[in-house]
Amino acid sequence: MNKNNILEQLRAATASLHDQVEQLPDMSRLMSPKVTDDDYLIALLRLRRLFWALEPTLSKHFFDLNRGDYCYLPRMKALNDDINCLSGSRPTESVEPLKLGYYQAIGAAYVVEGATMGGKVLAKRLSQTLNRSQTNGLKFFNFHRKGTRSLFISWLQQLELEAQQINWIVEGATTSFRVLLDGCKNQR
After folding, report:
1. CB within 8 A of 70, min separation 6: which ones?
2. pLDDT digits (tens, 9 = 90+) for 2-51
3. Domain extents in the chain
4. C-alpha angle 26-110-78 in degrees, rounded to nearest 5
């Protein structure tokens, strides 16, 4: 199997879902020059739902600092700290964490690491527009500085994958996008 083919397949399989997420009002407002702290808080709460659902599985499969390759670094603390900074409280979740198999979790990591890289653009914009920094509500979107996306991509491209394993990876990615989309639609 072509090692680089998995990235192409993931991009193709998730392109419309990615576009849908970017077009959600709660997410698209983050790029507006008129974004407010309330807009930012709502987006963080939506993202928190995604990470609440995925982080236990990602930590189970990929949180090992002794790995010589990709290691998932938990982000819930950064999300919770930002939410607490903006609202003064920590939300509770009613969504059940997803139980994904190893290859599905790779797909979930693709989505999470992509969101982390997207945070690079958002961190700069929110820093300027809302006058926020890592110490006052901008930890989560500054997570890109840890370099986990590039480690993930490098690791993913080295995997020798069978067709069924690729299918599971794509399934994990699409499921992850749908968790975010469903959460944004259901929390209106």
Report:
1. 62, 109, 148, 151, 152, 154, 155, 156
2. 445 899 999 999 999 999 998 999 888 998 999 999 999 999 998 998 99
3. 5-186
4. 55
Report how far apart the first and last C-alpha atoms of the chain are (Å, whole number): 43
Alpha carbon 41 to its chain centroid, in Å, reads 16
The tokens 């990709």 sit on which residue?
70
Dihedral pair phi/psi, residue 91, rounded to 5°: -75, 165
Residue with tokens 């983050």, as numbered in its chain: 30
Residue 40 per-residue DSSP state: H
CATH 1.20.1270.50 for domain 5-186, yes or no, is no
How is residue 23 written in tokens?
A: 């077009």
SS3 content of the chain, % helix, strand, coil (to 5): 70, 0, 30
Residue count (the chain): 188
> Residue 173 has which token pair?
């990615």
